[in-house]
Amino acid sequence: MKILHLSDLHFGKRVNGFSMIEDQERAVARILEITDAERPDAVIIAGDVYDKTQPSAEAVRLFDALLTGLAERGAAVFVISGNHDSAERIAFGGSIMSESGVYLAPVYDGNVRPVTLSDDYGEVDVFMLPFIKPSHVRRIFEDAEINSYTDAVRTAVEHMEIDPGRRSVLVTHQFVTGAETCESEELSVGGSDNVDAAVFEPFDYVALGHLHGPQSVTRETVRYCGTPIKYSFSEARHKKSATIVELFEKGRVEIRTAPFVPVHDMREIRGEYNEIMKKSFYEGTDTSDYLRIILTDEEDVPDAIGKLRSVYPNIMRLEYDNSRTRAGGAVIASEAAESKTPLELFGELFEIQNNKKLSPEQEEYLASVIESIWEGEK
Prior knowledge:
Mean pLDDT: 90
Largest sheet: 6 strands, mixed
Shape: globular
Number of domains: 3
Radius of gyration: 23 Å
């Protein structure tokens, strides 16, 4: 059985004020190209279909075009909600759409039933687990001890009817411990949203969403496919791709990728203004790429952004890296902050203001307060 694994489409997203709709339209076209070439039996979309819980009309139109195109090609389609989505909006119409082979995960209620597909090797059970928090699972299983995201996902998995003799696939949207993150992902304070990969042991393949870089975690078959396009400069070095999974007899899984080619790549340029503006510097490159330009001139260039855009129209960020900014720590702080949790950032601010570090008791209390806010609890 062949599966096309996608996630984190983030339809409707804007990056540094730029609409990504054109890029996302190209991504939809490329997904359909891959589907035509690979002819998968199933297509998985592992959450974060939209960038906001109330998506724009353009975003809904794009998702509609994608689902329609996939349905026309005859593949079964599995969609779950991510942390950016409204679970209720993603689930809407699921009972009717399942008749067309499009399966939308319902709002989590503790009862995750598989959709069963079959091939020459037998049956494959596909379980859809949307993004969940400990509070979601505690409300349903009141007697279970659920103190962490790992506890929540483990409890959800334990209540699935998994046949160990059959092949099974889990579609979910969580942060698995040990995975590589970047600034464009919303992660919880202090890593408290980590899920131990051991909870996924019963599954032959785990189709993950949430993290934007394609990667496997702990074992090849626990995998993030990543985003189809780049959504921040922390993703500039990513090689975006869709993941193609082939399930043979139980215990044998083969994984490969199909590349996405962006309309506009996302990259960084560093150098002095006069150097960057020379034709010999930019000749042969795509000047329409989304750019973060870091000028190393010691003096600010008057109207630098306007002048640079005459050559590079899609500048998203302009920064200076010189003796003045380094003395103030602006560039260093900006880059370092991208990889820090809210707890770490607050701790640094506390130390600057009070000339001492947070005590262990203060850290524990602060972590619980931020986590309560994250969980939406008082």
